[in-house]
Amino acid sequence: MKLKEKVIVITGAGSGIGRALSLEVLARGGYVAGIDINPDSLSKTRELAEANQEKFRSFTLDITDKEKTTALPLAVQEHFGKVDGLINNAGIIQRFVKVQELTDAEIHRVFDINFFSTLHLIRVFLPQLLERPESLIANVSSMGGFLPVPGQTIYGASKAAVKLLTEGLYAELKDTPVQVVSILPGAIDTKITENSGLERPKNADASRFKALDASKAAEIIVRGIEQNQLKILVGSDASMMDKLYRLAPKYAVDLIAKKMKSLLR
Ligand SMILES: NC(=O)c1ccc[n+]([C@@H]2O[C@H](COP(=O)([O-])OP(=O)(O)OC[C@H]3O[C@@H](n4cnc5c(N)ncnc54)[C@H](O)[C@@H]3O)[C@@H](O)[C@H]2O)c1
Q1: What is the model's pLDDT at position 201?
Q2: CA 245 → CA 10, 256, 261, distances in Å?
Q3: Quick one: CA dihedral 239, 135, 20, 158, positive or negative?
Q4: Residue of 124, 37, 131, 40 lying closest to 84 (CA atoms)
Q5: Is 170 labeled as catalytic in the residue annotation?
Q6: What percent of the residues of the chain are helix, what percent strand, and what percent coil, each to the nearest 5?
Q7: Which residues of 139-172 are buried (b: 16+ CB within 10 A; e: fewer)?
């Protein structure tokens, strides 16, 4: 779907990939309803939109707040007159520890934000999206959603759930105007650790893949959406590990486990 003149709802629009995606959609002539829990960061995204500021509307809310997200489709419709797309991008990571060391509350919070809020937003926006001549649901999963990273097992499981949800929706909505896109980024340079309320692990830089710029990631994602791809791998690490994982799964899992071992506290 071409994004010119389209109204796109983007969650997590106040930082990282979501901010870069917002600016990219605006640059291509679209309109953005930017959702984030952090009002200051949303204001900053709007400021960065420069000449396109009027085409960006902030909606400050916590996406786990079901009452507020249920009211969102009408609020966006009232402001822009229509909704053409939803990009579920907001997400958090978990503490860098083994599964057994996480509390139930931590596990539920990761799933509530990454999976259940994504699912709920899709369900509340779908009626409007089905009414459009063409529309979009794009969900940000992760390389960690098809390849396990030690110390991010619950995060990975939530992203694997997003990936399968997305592919299932693609199959279910094939004969409708709704284009469904699965986004699988590798390492992207953002503040996700800090925004998830966590300290950066000491060995973060040594063990991570070289992170891609968020604006570059947004360019790749938007190009993939406009080219109607189902699966958008973002970054050479994601592309390479996708191939390796399919070719030699155990080898790929062992390789990542070794590379990322130092992240574990
Ligand atoms: N950075 C990476 O290396 C990477 C890799 C693969 C996938 N991803 C995924 O990309 C997406 C964007 O991540 P990012 O790296 O840009 O992170 P980020 O922290 O820079 O941006 C995420 C934004 O989501 C917002 N947010 C978090 N919880 C929210 C909530 N409950 N309600 C509303 N807004 C909320 C944050 O305030 C923040 O502005 C996430 O889903 C993440 O899992 C990131």
Answers
A1: 79
A2: 30, 10, 18
A3: negative
A4: 131
A5: no
A6: 55, 15, 30
A7: bbbbbbbbbbbbbbbbbbbbbbbbbebbbebbee
Whole-number Å distance between alpha carbons of 177 and 205 = 43
Domains recognised in the chain with CATH numbers:
7-263 (3.40.50.720)
Contacts with 101 (C-beta within 8 Å, 6 or more apart), sequence order: 95
* pLDDT attached to residue 202: 74
pLDDT tens, 28-49? 999 999 999 999 999 999 999 9
Report if pTM > 0.70.
yes
201 residue type, one letter? P
User: Three-state SS across 49-92?
Assistant: CHHHHHHEEEEECCCCCHHHHHHHHHHHHHHHCCCCEEEECCCC
What digits encode the pLDDT tens for the residues 201-252? 776 665 567 899 999 999 999 999 999 999 999 999 999 999 999 999 999 9
Nearest to 59 by CA among 84, 31, 24: 31
User: What's at 231, amino acid-wise?
Assistant: K
Ligand 1: residues whose CB is within 6 Å? 11-12, 14-18, 36-38, 41, 62-64, 89-92, 113, 140, 142-143, 185, 187-188, 190-192, 195
Atom 36 of ligand 1: nearest residue by CA position: 12
Span 51-75, average pLDDT:
98
